[in-house]
Write a structure and sequence with these properties.
Bound molecules: glutamine
CATH class of the domain at 2-258 and 464-497: Alpha Beta
Strand content: 5-15%
Largest sheet: 11 strands, mixed
Low-confidence stretches: none
Mean pLDDT: 97
Amino acid sequence: MTSLDTLTARQIAAGIAAGDFTATEVAHAALDAISARDASTQAFLQVSENLALEAAAKTDAARAAGESLPPLAGVPVAFKDNMNLLGTRTTCASRMLETYESAYTATCVQRMLDAGATPLGKLNMDEFAFGSTTDSSAFHPTNNPWDITRVPGGSSGGSAAAVASGQVTLALGSDTGGSIRQPASLCGVVGMKPSYGAVSRYGVVAFGSSLDQAGPLGRSVEDVALAMNALTAGGRDRLDATSQNCAQDHLAHLEDPIEGRAVGIIPALLEAEGLASEVRTAILDAADKLASAGAHIVEVDLPNMASSIAAYYVLAPCEAFSNLARFDGVRYGYQEPRCTTLAEQSSLSRAHGFGPEAKRRQMLGAYLLSSGVYEKYYLAAQKVRTLITADYQRAFAQVDAILMPASPTVAWEHGAISDPAALYLADVFTISNNIAGNCGISVPVCLGADSGLPIGAQLQGPAFADAQLLTFARALERACHMEGIVAPAFAGKGGELA
Ligand code: GLN
């Protein structure tokens, strides 16, 4: 008996190709793991059993016909619920889109399917991706597989929890200000935010269009690299004007030595107020490990990073306000019944369709874009954006990657942080990367010395150096022995391959 928990994406695809098991057996094992585990994690919003079995049957038929199988053949994958997949609802974890049936399939989802992956369903998130706990989902919270009284992080909390608990091998999330990297860190999985433009956002519900990126979460750097191959295969997507041709083999240089390469650390950042000492220790240890692997650790500075939260929480709400205007109950979304005027219908539909954080963001955006205010905040934030981007350019002239935490603390208890501003401040390590359009990845490095909970180290790299970033991530992973771990309470619960 083999458990799905113990197999990498590559091993699943190879096992199917070799006839050790079928894609249908893998799909059943994943469905079985979901039914045994998801009552505790609540990572899924929908399980797409029929789609999974159909895709698996296609893979098995292709094998029977003697065709060579694609790289993710039969690999169980699930998608954040802001990604359209025909045959599922795309709710963004909001009442506003509770009944919205996907009208087409997002490019990033389609590319995973084209690579042979088996789609298991749609994953919980903060409403419209606003947040870092997944508690703002209109439907239910998601629990951290390492301690179900705690948050999995967010906004891609369902994606991180589903992978960490071994319900799927890979998941996709989206990252506007940290929403892949932070939950990956809190759940002990690898989560990559590709460079802005590396992965098409066509069919991913927009939050902040100048910041949004879709990307993969998995239990190893290799699995994430395989997903990056799938996501970039086919090159530029002409359906997303920001998409670039980033097709390449992200596995080709994964095992390259990092000897003699430079990795930056920002000493001042590690003294930041609110940084838990176990996280600080974990990052310093990670730097030592990279040094033992032969990297030069170089002190760098991003002097304007301190302003990144202020800039982001102006830019992101402004863009969200503009993007979410379409949810008016006419073109899209919940429609309030029995209204007498269009204005009343739009206003009541929005009042009852959106939850508190989604309203807060949109009201903030509306205010910040109003005349007289716009110049003072939005334009100022755009200038800060230019400064932050220039800071990174200077730093990346010295180093190939920068090491820092992904989250200032390990996972906290549900409801422990209720002040929205306190949650915003915790985004300090992730946001500047989106502002500059660079790539970033969180790799689990240890269990915290005080809490026993997973801690991720974040590596950031220059725009379009995604494959190089994966090489550093793999070097760190090799030194940390956290690869492939399923949260202990879930390992082995269902998911056996007969
Ligand atoms: N936590 C950040 C926010 O609340 C980032 C969210 C995201 O990346 N989607 O906006």
